[in-house]
UniProtKB/TrEMBL annotation:
PANTHER family: TRANSCRIPTIONAL REGULATOR, TRANSCRIPTIONAL REGULATORY PROTEIN. Belongs to the LysR transcriptional regulatory family. PROSITE patterns: HTH_LYSR. SUPFAM superfamilies: Periplasmic binding protein-like II, Winged helix' DNA-binding domain. Keywords: DNA-binding, Transcription, Transcription regulation. This is LysR family transcriptional regulator.
């Protein structure tokens, strides 16, 4: 018997025959002629000095004593695939800058943290900005937005909608709204928490004023600050349902009409998707946003 063991090509053919149960199917899977597969298996049998497969009416079956070779082939296959995967991942390197509004910081950070584990050469920058950065001028690589620009140089992919509702702390409800219902005629009697005056053009802020909210006891450009102010019982505020409903101590108020929801977009420069590092970030963020928005 030759001292040299079987090659990867030998094991690959034997492994495929084991999986496909026929020389014909194995040949199709490998892109080889059926006669070539049979000839290579016979050559391996001669080299090892023992039969490896049995031909029968139900197809080809690998001999039980040859299953160790099949297992060796599977291990080599997994190892080679890991090497190929590592080679692909090595190209995912460099810095990707993501710009989001504060309300998406938690979900985006979760997604980027997972991605960093998969691609150690990837460097990530997350900017939480109230202003809308200019993606067309590459101030950031990726943006999560609730408004479209209509720019021809950008892809603005809809991810779903953010639904908002009035929330108040449990203590505020117990003191002033025991039925957790807020009619339009009573809105002016309550304390409100809202965005800075510079953000009054937001549809949600316009809805508040149209519904009768007049007494704003706390304003901020930070959605986290607004959330904390509502939790502290300062007043009623419009919060994203997907986040606020998971916070202990908040109560969703019933109103005569629903506030407007907002479409969320994943935005990036058309050329950015050609870059591997940006492409993997886009894929991870899209999956996270679709989970987050339900």
């Amino acid at each position: 018997m030759p001292t040299d063991g079987p090659s990867w090509d030998d094991l690959r053919i034997l492994l495929t025959v084991h999986r496909e149960k026929s020389f014909l199917a194995a040949g199709k899977a490998l892109g080889l002629a059926t006669s070539t597969v049979a000839r290579r298996v016979e050559a391996l049998e001669r080299a090892l000095g023992r039969p490896l497969v049995h031909r029968g009416n139900t197809g080809v079956q690998v001999d039980a004593e040859a299953l160790g070779l099949v297992g060796l082939g599977e291990n080599l296959e997994l190892g080679l695939e890991a090497l190929r995967r590592d080679a692909r991942d090595a190209t995912v390197a460099g810095t990707v800058r993501v710009s989001v509004s504060e309300g998406f910081v938690r979900a985006t950070t979760r997604a980027l943290a997972r991605l960093r584990v998969k691609h150690p050469a990837l460097l990530l920058e997350l900017a939480s900005e109230s202003r809308q950065v200019d993606l067309a001028r590459r101030e950031a690589d990726v943006g999560i937005r609730i408004a479209r620009t209509g720019s021809a140089t950008l892809v603005e992919k809809p991810m779903g909608r953010v639904h908002v509702a009035p929330f108040a702390s449990r203590s505020y409800v117990e003191r002033r709204l025991p039925e957790a219902r807020l009619g339009r005629d009573a809105a002016s009697l309550h304390d409100w928490v809202g965005f800075d005056r510079g953000l009054e053009r937001l549809p949600q802020e316009q809805w508040l004023r149209a519904y009768g909210a007049t007494r704003f006891v706390f304003r901020s450009g930070s959605s986290t600050a607004i959330e904390e102010a509502v939790l502290a019982g300062l007043g009623i505020g419009l919060l994203a349902e997907v986040q606020a409903s998971g916070l202990d101590g908040l109560v969703r108020l019933e109103t005569e009409e629903r506030p407007p929801s907002a479409e969320v977009y994943l935005a990036f420069h058309r050329d950015a998707k050609k870059t591997p590092r940006v492409r993997v970030v886009l894929r991870e963020l899209e999956a996270e946003l679709r989970r987050h928005l339900g």
